[in-house]
Structure formats: C-alpha cells, structure tokens
Design a protein that fits this description.
Blueprint lengths: L2 H7 L2 E2 L2 E7 L22 H12 L7 E7 L1 H4 L2 H4 L1 H51 L4 H17 L1 H25 L2 E6 L20
C-alpha cells in the first residue's frame, strides 16, 4: 500500500496512521461482563477486532497511534486516564495467551512427530517384511502398500503443525505485541474529524 493510498483512507499524524475510536462513555471500550478491576478489563470484541484488523492492513514497519475521543467532561476523569494502561494491559495479556498457545501446539507437534516417526518406521519394517517373505501373495502386497501409505499419512499432522499451524500464532502474537506498545492519545469528541457510525459501533471509520 502506497503512502498516497494510506493518506486517502486513514488519517496520518506525525508519520503515524491513526486508529481512531469515538466513545460516549469509558465503559463502552470494555467488555461489560468482565468482573475484573478496571485496569484489567478485557476490551470490547468490536474494539479489539477493529484495532487488530487495521494493523493487519499495513506493512509490519508502519507506525500507529491509537486515538480515543471522549466527551469533554470525561477527559480528565480517573477512569479516562487509566484507558491507555488498560488497553496495553489487555494486549499484553493477549501476547501471553498466544505464547502459551504456541508452546502447547509446539509440544503437541513434537509428541505427534515422535509417534508419527515410530509408526512410520514400524509400518515400513512390517511392509518390507511382507514384501520379502510373501512377495507372490497379492493380499500381502496390498497390506504392505496400505501400511506404507498409512505410515506417511500419520506424519501429516505433525508436519502440518510445524509448517502451517505455528506461524499464524507467531504472526498474531507479533500483532498483539505491536499494539501493546503503541502510543495512545485521549482527545475531546469535538476534535474528531471523521464521521461516527451509529451506536453500538463506536469505531470511527477511515476517511471516505
């Protein structure tokens, strides 16, 4: 995506793409069913997904700034001042969860790889034995072939884990890590320059 394309879709400020959200109350940003203390609350799913999807739309080196617009009377409140820390805390938690998922999947992959190799070795030995001693027997030949195929099929799952399933977890973790380190700015609603969708979608869409 070129710089001109970015400028035409998103606001850019000081070389940073703005991820803008407009709220009517602080609690709108968070999961209202989460009983955790304010700083540890989960973000609302719509807000989290929006931030993540914007980051995915840009190259890895793109710099962002999260801008949250609030009514004037809320800007200086204690809850408002804690929003940046709460947002970072949420995504730091997501980073930890992705690391745990990666470890669990990696250990599962190792276990399945060992089992797959052992099964493939056993299937190969049995298959070769049948071929050597019962080479003229059609049924034995079919069983030997089936064992070889089954042995390689058993290897597919661990190969799939290491080649295809771990990398998306790393990518997602990296995105969460980037978001957890972003600058977060609180501004009065009157400074918002983009049209705001109707409630409950409090997210400011990119420029038309």
């Amino acid at each position: 995506m070129t710089d001109n394309a970015i400028d035409s879709i998103y606001h850019v400020e000081d070389g940073r793409v703005l991820i803008e959200m407009k709220l009517f109350s602080v609690i709108q940003l968070f999961n209202s069913f989460d009983p955790a203390p304010f700083r540890e609350k989960e973000l609302d799913n719509a807000a989290e997904n929006y931030i993540v999807e914007v980051v995915k739309d840009f190259p890895a080196k793109t710099q962002f700034r999260i801008v949250i617009y609030l009514p004037d009377e809320l800007i200086g409140t204690k809850d408002a001042r804690e929003i940046p820390e709460a947002v970072r805390s949420h995504f730091q938690y997501k980073v930890r969860m992705q690391r745990r998922r990666f470890r669990e999947r990696y250990v599962e992959g190792q276990f399945k790889l060992i089992v797959g190799i052992l099964f493939l070795a056993l299937a190969t030995v049995v298959s070769l034995t049948l071929e050597n001693y019962l080479s003229t027997n059609t049924a034995a030949h079919l069983i030997a072939t089936a064992l070889q195929i089954t042995g390689w099929v058993a290897m597919w799952e661990p190969i799939s884990i290491f080649l295809f399933q771990l990398w998306p977890l790393v990518q997602q973790r990296n995105i969460y890590e980037r978001i957890s380190q972003m600058e977060i700015s609180l501004r009065p609603n009157r400074k918002a320059t983009s049209p705001v969708p109707e409630f409950p979608a409090q997210i400011i869409h990119p420029k038309a």
